[in-house]
Amino acid sequence: MNYQTSEQHKDISTSRQSRDAEDTLKILGLLESQDPFAGYDHLQHLMTGVTAHDSVNVDKSKEVGSHVLTDMVGKNVMTYTFKRKAHAVTMDSKSAVKIGKEEVVSIDPQLLFQRLVIAGSQADKLAEAFGYELCGYPPALFESKTVLLSANKPQIAKSIWNAVPHDDSPEGDILYVLDGGALLHRLPWQTGKTYTSILDSYCSYVSRHYGPSVIIVFDGYTNQPSTKDGTHTRRNKTVGRNVSFTSAMPLKMKKQEFLSNNDNKQRFINMLSECLERTGFQVHNADGDADVLIAQTAVMAAKKHRTVLVGDDTDLLILLLHLYQCGELYFMSEPRKSSSSSSHKYLNIGRACGILAQDVTSNILFTHAILGCDTTSRVFGVGKSVSLRLVQESPIFREQASVFRKVSATKDEIIAAGEKAMGLLCKGGVTDSLNELRLKRFHAQVTDNKTAIHPRNLPPTSSSTKFHSLRVYHQVQEWMGNSLPPEEWGWRIQDGHFIPIHSDQDPAPQFLLELVRCKCKSGCSTMRCPCRHQGLDCTLACLECRGACANMCSHHQDDSEDIE
After folding, report:
1. Which residues lie across from 51 on neighbouring strands?
2. How distant, in Å, are the alpha carbons of 107, 183, 527, 533 from that of 561?
3. Position 365 confidence tier, pLDDT thresholds 50, 70, 90
4. Which residues form the Tesmin/TSO1-like CXC domain (predicted)?
5. CATH topology classification for 154-361
6. Averaged pLDDT, 489-513
7. Is residue 503 within 8 Å of residue 483, measured between CB atoms?
8. Residue 202 — pLDDT band, cuts 50, 70, 90?
């Protein structure tokens, strides 16, 4: 065998030199758009523009390590444990986090029911007990302590579509009003495409499908707390990081991750609005949620033009039915990408208002909100078609609904009307209080059921319904254009987000809580605390803490968790 060396090397071949030249030009092109010496205020990825979360400290690794070494001095090496909060935090570890810090705890809603059986031999105490939720949170209204049961909004829309004959596509000159939020999610984004090409694809889509007579209305997004925070948390499983982008830069992340960051979304909407206006379309930008502005724009346009509102949100249909005045106005249901149907449906709003009648359209906002929308909870086991049927058939239900239209209604009036309406929705009598109805329903289910009774199958208590009613009133007034402070209407701020208040009373009477008490001596700060583990706050019945501990507020993930 003969081994020889050559003066030639693969790195000096023509093909390799050509490839190296192309790669060098790519790097120079990227550095032109992202100057590494621009003096950024925050740590960020040079190529993608992704801004690091405030908690990222990997650039201070030496300082972090020195702190750990200092903490180890004088400790037994066999027993020392590293705290998670002492680790250096990288950008990757913060790429997908939930909004807020709520801990999802494992709750057994039947635990207090078991204790109820223990105390159930005393009939007078049994009636008293059902004035409480008998759970760490109202299971008929909440998924967890701070998360409302998600609304099934399409149910009421389906009932309306079934009650009113569909129309064919309107002919002639048409002015289209588009929900900008639905439009934003209508088109797919391809990673690697520049933002300019993505913007152009939206302009082409609108021109191709709707022609020149179009008004697009966009939501406004800020980092201020909103009563829709819970809905946004549910929809956005992750929170994308802040991206410093220009129109010439390529997209480097998935569309969902990019749009889950409010700053990214608002900057993109601003760029898209300018692009659409240059193309010749009218664009309106709301300061916050745009549903009311979209509906008002369509109603006003219908006075002069044959108008079609295009959207896929039930709230828009409800608002059109409530706000409609005159003219030829249609609601066109845009089929969602997940829908098997590709055809458009048209609803003549004027005809729908005539068929449903004034009794329904004047109370349609309450009818929608009482059983769940983006800011109110659905009621477990009660479909939204029930409220639509009641507002059509029951004068008593309409009387309660009318209270929520009053701008000057007092809280006492709202709470009383809300409880009566909830009782009717839960098939109670006119004179039944919710707490009495809960006891009756419990006795009926004990007699008839062959399986265990779950607390969510009972109507909510008067206390939890009170705050539900306040949130319903707040939402109805917002739709009517009357802005009210959420903190006074069933909401509180926690970690910079609005959290719904579920009740103002203990989960159970004192004689039952005494059967659920902890003996913690360490502050009740971990899931070892029996009260915390069951989703309950500590009380005076607890032997050591007497309620003065870390378990008297909402539970969060403990960053001081030990890492063995």
Report:
1. 44
2. 21, 44, 11, 16
3. very high
4. 513-555
5. Rossmann fold (3.40.50)
6. 87
7. no
8. very high
